[in-house]
Amino acid sequence: MLKEESFYGSDSVKINARAIASIAYLAATEIEGVKRIARDFRTTLEEFIGHKGHAGIRVKLDKNNEVRIKISLIMKYGYDIPDVATKVQENVYRAIEKMAGITVKDIDINVRGVEK
Question: What are the extents of the domains in the chain?
Fold first, then answer.
């Protein structure tokens, strides 16, 4: 069984990692140049055994109680990859801080492919 992580936002509100992943998913896909969030083998396996979540987005709480997010993307052809990745990081950071009241330590972007 997979461990459910929860985080405390402003005013001691408990927020599940899935909720944070949902916010990150929506914020990332708002950026022009992002085709979709990438699926990987681990995500496919987790879905097969019944774990529901957002494919390609990992939310972790590290030893210092800092939130770290990893997002795997498929980019649209013709866009500047570093520019789009930076915009995704900024948008996800702002959305999570605004909606959940949680400060994010890292947002790692992994560009897994480019498609038309």
Answer: 6-115
